[in-house]
Amino acid sequence: MKSALFTIIAGIPNCMIIKHDISLKPLNSFGIEANAKTFSSFTTVEELEEILSELPGASPIILGGGSNILITGDLDRPVLKNEVSGMNRTSEDEDYAVVKVGAGENWHGFVNYCIENGLGGVENLSLIPGNIGASPMQNIGAYGVEIKDVFDHLNAFHIYDKKMVRFNVSDCHFGYRESVFKKQYKDHFSIIDVSFRLRKKPVFNISYGAIQQELETQGVKELSIRAISDAIISIRQSKLPDPKKIGNAGSFFKNPEISASAFSALKDQFAGIVGYPLENGNVKLAAGWLIESCGWKGYRRGDAGCHEKQALVLVNYGQAKGKDIFGLSEDILQSVYKKFSVMLEREVNLL
What we know:
The chain has about 350 residues and is an alpha+beta fold. The chain has 3 domains: about 5-80, Uridine Diphospho-n-acetylenolpyruvylglucosamine Reductase, domain 2 (2-Layer Sandwich), CATH 3.30.43.10; about 85-200, 2-Layer Sandwich (Uridine Diphospho-n-acetylenolpyruvylglucosamine Reductase, domain 3), CATH 3.30.465; about 245-350, Uridine Diphospho-n-acetylenolpyruvylglucosamine Reductase, domain 1. About 25% of the residues lie in helices and about 25% in strands. Strand 7 and strand 8 form a beta hairpin. Helix 5 (about 210-215) packs across helix 6.
């Protein structure tokens, strides 16, 4: 790796530094070795503005926790790491409290803050990797809960207009692992903070997946948001690899949605196919089942592989390059389509 070169930006508290030729390996959960031609970090809007003023005309990549990206090569565009911190209540009434969180805060750290303060709504999203800023971008979800269920609003900085913009829930166009930030406004905004509306009197959601079974296994007699969080952490740790030990970005593919008639036709051909009816009349297929049925679960090609316990998760066993992971994902997509006539979609963001 080339030795880093530095540019000092005068006038910014703590003397912000723009670095050159920086390894991104420790900054992405896949552990992919790739270099950023230009790199810096910011903790405030003012620092972000100052950095952008030193990079006129640039289209930066805003990096958060690096847990939902696949870097397929060295990056020529400037990489700016969002490290905006802070976590505090901004308003509350008898039933709800609104908590404002900096985009650079760790997601699970926020979940723990809510549990410790008796605020319900995000306990089902325990142990999801990444930072706060990515949560509305992806509309992250797990075990019957999505960000849109607890979202109040967010503040984001427009990279090109150089101004702050507030987004309410209707502005975000939340969908299944989707929001306006992933397509229409992709690379236009840096999310600065997100405010969540949380219940002071929690409503427990344990009907999804194996939560209830895990609670029974743990001998839980009295439900609480802590008990639910602990159960979900146990379930996730039993199925998903720890990125600190095996590089991965969690679920690599989305669960595809098809019509009820298409599902019925597939059911006639593949009796064991797994699908979940949706309110709109369609059916959501279990992508993991489709991938496993094509023989990919546990498959390894060099250091790129499909995890042995969860076919939705692609992994880097050490020295895989981004293009190796991408190539494997492409082969999986094509094999699933060939067998089921269903085209999967990647959940991770490609860089």
